[in-house]
């Protein structure tokens, strides 16, 4: 291979090396999945190696910054059940209690629509009185029993890495391609700089 050919090929070779280096770096985010022994060293992809640590840190951040239990409990307390309780009272009285009362001998004969309507009013009033304490109970139980940090931690730590890799590739495919191309461009420029340096310093002479 003569000098001219070598000078021409150098930028393209360094561009290929730059592209390949970035491509490998992207792949090594998830690969190898299992620890791989290379001589006296052990290597594993960044995400598989740090999955548990990422799960712990992500769960702590999410709980602290996004899913704060006290804020969710306060949102639960804001739920107004009263608009739905009239329908609940109507269903209970007319579809459940009413037919049972009418089936009772002697008493059933006194049960009519007017009686059931009065029962419905009483039932709706009683249920609405219990609505607020019930919501408060649910909010308190939620705050004391649900541990978001552990739930998020367990889910991230157990998340299937192949599925995660597919999701990341779908979302960041364009950015990954840009990184690979950037490696090729930088490699090409570096190769051009090498050629110019060789010529200026007289390392290669025509």
Structure notes:
With 206 residues, the protein is mainly α. It has one domain (3-201). 77% of the residues lie in helices and 3% in strands. The chain has seven helices and two strands. A two-stranded antiparallel sheet has the order 1-2. β1 and β2 form a beta hairpin. α3 (69-77) packs antiparallel against α5 and α4 (82-102) packs across α5 (113-145). The radius of gyration is 35 Å and the shape is rod-shaped. The two termini are 13 Å apart. The mean pLDDT is 87.
Tell me the fraction of residues in β-strands, as a range. under 5%
Helix content: over 70%
Q: How many distinct helices?
A: 7
Order of adjacent strands in the largest pleated sheet: 1-2
Summing up helix and strand content along with how strands pair, one would put the structural category as mainly alpha
Counting DSSP E segments of at least 2 residues, the number of strands comes to 2
Low confidence ranges: none
Report the sheet with the most strands, covering strand number, pairing sense and barrel closure. Answer: 2 strands, antiparallel
Q: How many angstroms separate the termini?
A: 13 Å
Q: Write down the secondary-structure element order.
A: HEEHHHHHH
């Amino acid at each position: 291979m003569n000098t001219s050919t070598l000078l021409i090929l150098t930028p393209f070779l360094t561009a290929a090396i730059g592209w390949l280096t970035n491509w490998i770096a992207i792949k090594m985010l998830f690969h190898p999945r299992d620890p791989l022994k290379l001589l006296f060293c052990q290597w594993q992809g960044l995400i598989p190696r740090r999955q548990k640590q990422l799960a712990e840190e992500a769960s702590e951040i999410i709980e602290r910054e996004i899913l704060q239990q006290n804020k969710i409990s306060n949102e639960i307390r804001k739920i107004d059940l009263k608009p739905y309780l009239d329908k609940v009272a109507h269903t209970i009285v007319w579809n459940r209690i009413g037919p049972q009362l009418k089936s009772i001998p002697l008493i059933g004969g006194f049960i009519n629509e007017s009686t059931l309507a009065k029962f419905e009013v009483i039932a709706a009033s009683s249920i609405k009185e219990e609505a607020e304490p019930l919501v408060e109970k649910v909010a308190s139980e939620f705050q004391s029993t649900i541990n978001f940090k552990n739930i998020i931690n367990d889910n991230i730590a157990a998340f299937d890495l192949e599925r995660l890799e597919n999701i990341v590739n779908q979302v960041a495919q364009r950015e990954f391609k840009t990184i690979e191309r950037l490696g090729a461009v930088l490699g090409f420029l570096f190769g051009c700089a090498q050629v110019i340096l060789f010529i200026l310093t007289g390392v290669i002479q025509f």
